[in-house]
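Researcher: Let's do a round of design. I'm pasting the structure tokens now; please hold your answer until I've finished.
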């Protein structure tokens, strides 16, 4: 009897036509998650009759939802015998784990409200010209969109995501891990230009960045992209390293991303959420660090200015601290009337690193010798209770092409 049920369920849930896929892509993904969780609650209370009705309604609206298909299959098995475990009818341990993992991630998000009242520690300052920022929490299988409200991040939306098959912390090409770091969107690729794997489209991001290169991390082709047409979404750990959203969520996130202004993407292992007062203090502390460095630069006192740079860990443009120090003294030997201003400032706590902060800004430099405008990025590391520069250079606002690569 169970073998017959399995055969019928497999036949019933074959992918439907493209017309149905289009309608499903336009459905409300937030309502989808709520309906899934309501069904789980009915199963928890052993209200199987209503749970079956709920899954039928789910499959009517979201016919490609594997999660709804598997829940419905479990409920069918419960009709002919005791349901001893979630995913009872699934033949492989991997598929069973994926099923449970997705339920757990969605359930925990529903019951954890930190993100509604607190601010990610990774965002300390946002440029006025940057209306939105994307923040990924890989451990929670979640991506958050924050709106820039006069410098304060305000949660706009959030979505369930898939990350690399082997998890997070990418180190080398082909390791099937999603990187941890701070990136920006480099362009938009329409789904019509891509294989079905990428769904409705893709947003390539700027991995590897200068810090990844410094850490000798390899690989490329890390994208935020949609889902293949045969399924509503993928399990939490399933990609080759990309960040994957459902096609309905891809439609939603598209309106917040603009490659022309380099929408920032913070990819964290896990977000640490701060209360407003704590966030404001950390923000002010880093503004003080930045302004202190600028003031000492403008003083043209090299002995004071060089103290902002790490003797042990500074490395940029092929120079360690000692060679930078010699070069800088020679370059500024007869410099006078130094003026330094910054604008379009971003300050980010770098994820996956202890006491590492990235500052990005437009720099305006002037002196008796030259005037210079440049896009700058500066990495600061805290050592012995003092913030020191470990990298300083021009910001690489790289563009990527729509070529397909191995992550």
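Researcher: That's everything. Go ahead.
Model: Designed sequence:
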């Amino acid at each position: 009897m169970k073998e017959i049920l399995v055969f019928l369920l497999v036949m019933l849930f074959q992918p439907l036509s493209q017309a149905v896929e289009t309608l499903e892509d336009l459905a409300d993904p937030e309502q989808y998650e709520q309906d899934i969780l309501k069904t789980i609650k009915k199963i928890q209370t052993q209200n199987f009759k209503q749970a079956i009705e709920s899954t039928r309604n789910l499959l009517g609206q979201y016919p490609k939802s594997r999660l709804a298909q598997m829940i419905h299959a479990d409920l069918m098995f419960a009709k002919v015998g005791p349901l001893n475990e979630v995913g009872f009818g699934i033949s492989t341990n991997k598929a069973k784990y994926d099923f449970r993992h997705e339920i757990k991630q969605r359930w925990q998000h529903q019951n954890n409200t930190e993100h509604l009242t607190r601010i990610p520690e990774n965002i300390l300052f946002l440029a006025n010209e940057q209306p939105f920022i994307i923040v990924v929490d890989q451990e929670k299988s979640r991506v958050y969109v924050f709106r820039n409200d006069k410098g304060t991040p305000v949660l706009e939306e959030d979505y369930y995501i898939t990350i690399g098959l082997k998890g997070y912390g990418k180190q080398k090409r082909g390791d099937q891990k999603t990187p941890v770091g701070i990136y920006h969107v480099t362009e938009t690729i329409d789904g019509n230009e891509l294989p079905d794997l990428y769904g409705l489209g893709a947003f390539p991001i700027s991995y590897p960045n200068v810090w990844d290169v410094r850490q000798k991390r390899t690989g490329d082709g890390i994208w935020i992209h949609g889902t293949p047409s045969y399924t509503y979404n993928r399990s939490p750990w399933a990609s080759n390293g990309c960040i994957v959203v459902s096609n309905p969520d891809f439609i939603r996130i598209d309106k917040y991303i603009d490659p022309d202004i380099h929408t920032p993407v913070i990819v964290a292992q896990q977000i640490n959420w701060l209360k407003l007062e704590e966030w404001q203090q950390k923000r002010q502390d880093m503004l003080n660090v930045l302004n202190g460095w600028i003031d000492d630069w403008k003083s043209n006192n090299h002995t004071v200015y060089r103290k902002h740079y790490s003797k042990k860990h500074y490395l940029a443009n092929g120079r360690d601290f000692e060679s930078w120090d010699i070069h800088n003294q020679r370059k500024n030997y007869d410099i006078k009337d130094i003026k330094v201003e910054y604008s379009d400032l971003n300050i980010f706590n770098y994820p996956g690193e202890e006491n590492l902060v990235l500052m990005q800004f437009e720099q305006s430099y002037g002196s008796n010798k030259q005037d210079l405008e440049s896009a700058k990025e500066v990495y600061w590391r805290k050592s012995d209770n003092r913030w020191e520069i470990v990298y300083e250079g021009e910001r690489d606002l790289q563009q990527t092409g729509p070529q397909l690569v191995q992550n």
